[in-house]
Specification:
mainly alpha; single chain; extended; 5 helices
């Protein structure tokens, strides 16, 4: 995956956070609030919105430009395993 493709992937994540996440995850947002009073519904949504605003093509390109990144010559495969129930308990 080249650099532009990675930027586009993060841009799509920003769009998802902006448009789809909060409507799909109201129950998880409520659960986080109930399990830890520091996380209010407003603070969770504010954090999601802050990331959504930062994850766009213009901001990501401006952030990456100062670095002299080389394209990866060989791809590595990585496997992530997680349990959704353990994420909700944190």
């Amino acid at each position: 995956m080249n650099l532009q493709a990675r930027i586009q992937a993060f841009t799509k994540l920003g769009e998802y956070l902006k448009n789809d996440l909060t409507s799909e995850k109201e129950e998880q947002i409520y659960s986080a609030k109930v399990k830890n009073a520091w996380f209010t519904k407003k603070s969770i949504k504010d954090a999601i919105n802050a990331w959504a605003e930062q994850l766009n093509d213009e901001m990501l390109t401006a952030w990456i430009n100062p670095y002299k990144l080389k394209e990866v010559e060989s791809l590595k495969r990585v496997l992530f395993l997680y349990s959704q129930s353990s994420l909700l308990k944190a």
